[in-house]
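Note to self: user wants both folds in one dump. Writing first protein now.
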Amino acid sequence: MSDLRAELTKILDEAEWEWLIPHVQRDAVILVAPELNLLDVGVAIASDHIPSVQQWIEQQLITKPTTVQVGEWNSDAFSELRQRTKRFNTLIVQPYVLVQEIAAV
């Protein structure tokens, strides 16, 4: 398991909203609540740890983005008032892209 965690740590990254749009369109994005550790969620999904994943789903700590959220992210990305585009911490665990919003500064 530590090897899996080490491998996932290497691919933990940051992405702009625009880069994630194709993955949202193919229904592959999973939104991870800020109170969870993105790496812990990735390890649980990759290792098929069903009890943890099921609990997070039931508590709505991991979800698919809603159309409202996608609309907000789209408007944030294209708003002229925003200096910086919306960004996310990301982790690819095939076939999913796990994302966690980065709070605007």
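First done. Writing the second protein, which came from a different request thread.
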Amino acid sequence: MKSNVETAEIAQPYAQALFSVAQSKNLTEEFGSDARDLLDLLKNSDQLRNLIDNPFIQAETKKAVISQILGGDSANPYLRNFLLLLVDRRRIFFLDQILQQYLVLLRQLNQTVLAEVTSAVPLSPEQQQAIQQKVIAITQARQVELETKVDSDLIGGVIIKVGSQVIDASLRGQLRRLSLRLSN
């Protein structure tokens, strides 16, 4: 079982190394896009997650699957070699955390903040744009990257989390606050 502290200690240097390579080759945005795609793939594919997490699967098998996922020789050779190195070093198990940390470094470079938005229903593009503008006004960031989730338990409204700051504009939150006031 992975602890958060151990994971961060292992993932951070690898993410920084990948970021250094990306910067030196002027590929930070391309690697960022690839990192997001790989994270989506890991999130949506239990088979891939099991392959990466299983220590009994041979390294060569993992390398073959990674090469196949990246499209063989058409993929960026630096990223492919980095992932193969993770397999060799038995660190592919931390791929998710390494990619997440890479995206943190990329956001810092671009002065972008991540806003985690939980809503009762899927947000329209106009609503997403309005939330982005509100977050830019609050944080003074250049750009905002939205990570949206739907939680029907909210009844209505949204919860926006930016770093450690949480803005609860959901009906569930308003009802909870009203209940606390009435009970006092």
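Dump finished. Worth passing along: The chain has eight helices and four strands.
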